Amino acid sequence: MIKKLPIRWGILACGNIAHQFAAALKDCPDSVLQAVSSRDFERAKVFADEHGAAAVYDSYEAMLADSEVDAVYIATLHPFHLEWIAYCVQAGKHVLCEKPLTMNLREAKQAKKLADENRCLLREAFMYRHHPQTQRVVDLVTSGVIGKVRMIEANFCYNSGEQPESRIQAKSLGGGGILDIGCYTMSFCRLIAGRAQGRLFAEPLELKAVGHLDTQTKTDMWTTAAMRFEGDILAQATCALRMNHENVAVVLGEKGRITVELPWHCPGTIRVELDGQQSAQEIAMPKQRHLFAYEIESFTNELRGRPIAATEVAMRFDDTLGNMKALDWWRQEIGLAYKADRIG
Ligand SMILES: NC(=O)c1ccc[n+]([C@@H]2O[C@H](COP(=O)([O-])OP(=O)(O)OC[C@H]3O[C@@H](n4cnc5c(N)ncnc54)[C@H](OP(=O)(O)O)[C@@H]3O)[C@@H](O)[C@H]2O)c1
């Protein structure tokens, strides 16, 4: 637990998403950007100048030796997450690590063990899961406005074109849609299926998936998973890296449906359509803070010994483990086997 504020952050790797995180810190009064690190000093320097970090390091290790850093945001690529979580917690740093936390469930369990042994907080950065829009969707579902939930559909697709060397497509860099964006759609289905039944999240009882693997990279380019949860709630999670789609999430119930536009890059609009009613209720969510500010605040609250309230949507660690397990299952179904623990 940390009592002294602000929480002093170090950013590990200065890529694309690290810029979003640094921008969001400015929206978080309890946090400050203390240090940044990159394998390339020039990149770190430019980043530090842009976002106002006090210290700049040309290696991740050097930043971890800085006693002025309380917590580290890991923004390197997912195949390297476990290794850097290990170094961070062994250096006594609390960690907020980009999604997916690791490459599979086995690694995620290892990461948690290391964090616990070193008495460090470890959380997966899942920005949409902390946003008031997601909370509103969950509150609508649990209010019973659409009755019992029957089905859930979640899509996250974009067309990145052919770029086999890129981090999103190359196998050695953790490429493939399931780990990049399927993790969002899976987490949404598990969240809603759970909340619809009075639990924080739920695990699929059955999962069947089909997918297309690129012939060159052997990573998944478009795929869909169909699932059955307790209570006969069915769900479909879809993701694609080489195809555009309407990126929406829909919860269908016995009395109507809830459609979330921009479910991942909140805020968007939530539409509630009830059977037999001509007009829909449109709930436009206002943009109040940077999207990433909510996950940072949730993390700093936990660091200060304030646990997440039961009704609150936020990424708890058990939820991360459940999501990793379901992603392992999905990947295994389409021929991307990992040595996962027993599935099902
Ligand atoms: N939450 C979100 O909305 C969101 C969105 C996109 C990505 N992500 C996640 O964030 C992580 C980073 O994604 P990104 O889009 O920021 O990627 P990126 O722009 O390619 O940046 C990744 C950084 O990783 C570091 N790195 C270390 N070893 C590397 C290697 N062998 N090859 C390439 N880079 C290496 C580099 O930092 P230095 O050179 O500075 O050391 C690089 O800039 C991924 O795990 C991804 O899933 C999250």
Strand content: 25-35%
Strand order of the largest sheet: 8-9-10-7-11-12-13-14
Q: Round the mean pLDDT to the nearest integer and report it.
A: 96
Helix content: 25-40%
Low-pLDDT segments, ≥5 res: none
Number of helices: 9
Structural class: alpha/beta
CATH topology (fold) name of the largest domain: Dihydrodipicolinate Reductase, domain 2
- CATH class term of the largest domain: Alpha Beta
Distance between the termini: 36 Å
Query: Nearest-angstrom radius of gyration?
Result: 20 Å
Q: Please, what is the CATH homologous superfamily of the largest domain?
A: Dihydrodipicolinate Reductase, domain 2
Outline type:
globular
Characterise the protein shown here.
The chain is an alpha/beta fold and 344 residues long. The protein has two domains: 119 residues, Rossmann fold; 206 residues, Dihydrodipicolinate Reductase, domain 2, CATH 3.30.360.10. The protein contains nine helices and 14 strands. An eight-stranded mixed β-sheet has the order 8-9-10-7-11-12-13-14, with helices on one face. It has a six-stranded parallel β-sheet with strand order 3-2-1-4-5-6, with helices on both faces. α7 packs across α9. The longest helix is centred in the middle third of the chain and has 19 residues. The radius of gyration is 20 Å and the shape is globular. The model has no long low-confidence stretch (mean pLDDT 96).
